[in-house]
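Researcher: Please predict.
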Amino acid sequence: MNKVTEMADRPGTWSPFRRRWTRREWLGGVTLLAFGSTGLGRPEELSAAETKLVEAVRAQTAKAGIKDVGVDLSDHFVGVGNAPSAFRIKALKLCESLAATFLQHFKAKGFEVALSRDRLVVVTLADRESYAAFKGEEVDKSEGGHFDVAGNRLAVFDFLNGRGKAAGNVRTMNTFTLVHESIHQLTFNTGLLDPQADVPDAVSEGLATYGELWQLGRPQIGQKNSLRLAELKNPSPGDGGWIPVAELLTDDDLFSDGKTEQRAYAEAWLLIYDLMQTKAGAKKLQAYLKTIRSRRDAGHRVATAEEALGDLGKLDDGLKKRIRTLR
């Protein structure tokens, strides 16, 4: 899950309006984009495994009192929820396009990735109220969606539904939250990460932030993330400073603590970004990801990382230098 908290304007903040954007604002772009074409199917075309997942979502929406739940299909995704069909279809088309870019990028870097044969579930809800009911808890105003690893499903909502047109500035934003959470779903369903393994949040969030700036009009993964870089160069108020890589990999709470979360997300992006810039770095990351696939507890995270990535102290020094070279 990703949070981008709103903050005061300052130089270097990534956005046409030079301020942080809440996930709610970013997600608003979902209903405003023009999507490419993709084949859509009918619910009766679901496989047995897909039907089981869809029925699990239906059961949860029924328990939450959510009515008028519909289903739409694309080649690799199934959208389920009470959001208007147009929203579900647009979300699925975005997921299809992102998945194609994701696979192409990581294959080109030498990673063995492939989509699962069964469609991936995207829960598309009509509004924040439906989303909160589906989760069964109050949701933070900055939250626009999440990926549930255990349930293997992505959940998002259409915050614009029934509220008229978005403000002009929101129209210029890409589908930041949907892309971030979709990448989480792809990492756990293409072979990069194992949902049963002990995956440090730094790794999971690092991969998601590595590709979160993907856009339909500029379908790239792995470009410099100016949003995260701005946090490293101009930290948020109260930022505690540099988090050593060894700590970043072992303390998952850093990503939920308001005092450290923005720094943690930014450093997680930098870690993955820096490794992916060279063939040697990408191979180290490949080796590391393969190793943690068999890990089921967090007891040896540092040792496991050093086996593949080398001395973490040296890696720390290299990442700090890397910040100074990025513009």
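Model: Confidence is low (pLDDT under 50) at residues 3-39, 166-174.
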